[in-house]
Amino acid sequence: MRRRIASLALAALTLLSACTTGQETPDDDPTAYTPGTLRVLASSELSDMSPVLDQVRERTGITVRPTYLGTLDAVDLLARGKADQAYDAVWLASNDYLRLRPEAREKVVSETPIMSSPVAIGVKPATVRSLGWSPEDVTWSQVERAVGDGELTYGMTDPARSNSGFATLVSVASALSGAQSALTDADVRKATPRLREFFQGQKLTSGSSGWLAGAYTRRGNVDALLNYESVLKGIPDLTVIRPKDGVVTADYPLSSLAAAGPEARENVRRLAEALRSPESQRAITDHTYRRPVVASVTPASGLDTTRRRELPFPGSRSVADGLLDSYENELRRPSPTVYVLDTAGSMRGDRLTRLKAALTGLTADFRDREEVTLMPFGSAVKSVRTHVVDPEDPQSGLDGIRRDTQALLAEGDTAIYTSLEKAYEHLGGDGEAFTSIVLMTDGENTAGATAAAFETFHGSLTGEQRDIPVFPILFGDSDRAELERIAELTGGRLFDAQQGSLDGAFEEIRGYQ
Question: Which of 260, 286, 296, 336 has the fewest Cβ atoms surrounding its Cβ within 10 A?
Answer without folding.
Answer: 296
